[in-house]
Give the backbone structure.
Amino acid sequence: MELTIETLVFAIFSIITLAGGLGVVLARNLFRAALMLLVSLFGVAGLFVLLAAPFLAAVQILIYMGGIAILIIFAVMLTRGMVRAHKVMNEQWDVAAFIALVAFIVLLVVIIQVAQGDGAPLPQAPVADVTADPTVSLGASLLDPAQYVLPFEVASVLLVGALIGAIYVARDDEAE
Amino acid sequence: MVPLWMFLVVAAALFAIGLFGVLARRNAVAILMGIELMLNAVNINLVAFWRYLTPDTMMGQAFAVFVFVVAAAEAAVGLALIVAIYRRRQSVVAEDVNLLKW
């Protein structure tokens, strides 16, 4: 595999993603962990651009970085005194590290086996170029009755239900 | 272009990092952040498989969009629960919320 621009971009965004993820998990200061989450999500958005999914990259930045991560930062600030804890990890963090390592190794073994397997090996390059605008075809397939219009509507109902539930749960009972 | 397995390895590493965060952190907000990392790893996998194997149908991207929706709903409800628990017990450490622990 020769070193192309794409490989370089892939390496940069992968390192941003994984370093941000490690920062989220290991940071002692919770606010700093939330900021590292922003970095990691940005790296994932870059990978989406590399995978010819510009709409998902935009959604990643708008919803994830602009919505969810900011919501998490709000929660960090609303739970005062919890930002700098004495102990960040629980007593079983070594077991947790072992489990995470085992999960990673199992996934790696599966990927290697499938990549070298004689069934259908993983492609080195995409089987076809994206001819149509992926954003246009995504929008069309989401509202196509033959494809995803029912999950689309169910997802909107789920969002409404979740947000109303969130407002109800987080409401201050004694404030009225 | 980059071969598919490299995307899968990055996604697997991100998933393992998130799993460690979920299992090891004490703060409930940090646990939620680990879940977000794991969901992002799944999304990388979905979009990578879509791009490399079935770029003519939009299945992979549509699934990724629904993962976004579920992640947003999960973050909203989870953070509301955390704020409610903090208001009642002045703590967001997961070990302190053990009333239902057997």
